[in-house]
Design goal:
single chain; 82 residues; mainly beta; five-stranded mixed beta sheet
């Protein structure tokens, strides 16, 4: 197992520690770890960290998943825009 994982977030290559969640990768990638925007355009970021609040929904390799509950994998593609 590699010590690091490379994934793409909104087209940008991001390197994270192996075993990191997508929510952590969003934070590492910069900004406030915004996962999506609300219907009114407000930034939404992970809140509860355990999958209850649904604020961290992102597209991971074309599937809608919770960033806080998804472990990064090599080459994964994450899209935060809805």
């Amino acid at each position: 197992m590699s010590a690091h994982t490379l994934l793409h977030i909104d087209g940008n290559l991001v390197r994270v520690k192996a075993g990191s969640s997508v929510a952590a990768a969003l934070r590492i990638a910069g900004g406030m770890g915004v996962a999506r925007t609300s219907v009114t355009g407000q930034p939404r970021a992970p809140f509860c960290g355990m999958g209850v609040c649904q604020e961290c929904r992102v597209l991971v390799d074309g599937r809608r998943l919770l960033a806080c509950q998804t472990v990064c994998s090599e080459g994964m593609r994450v899209e935060t825009s809805e």
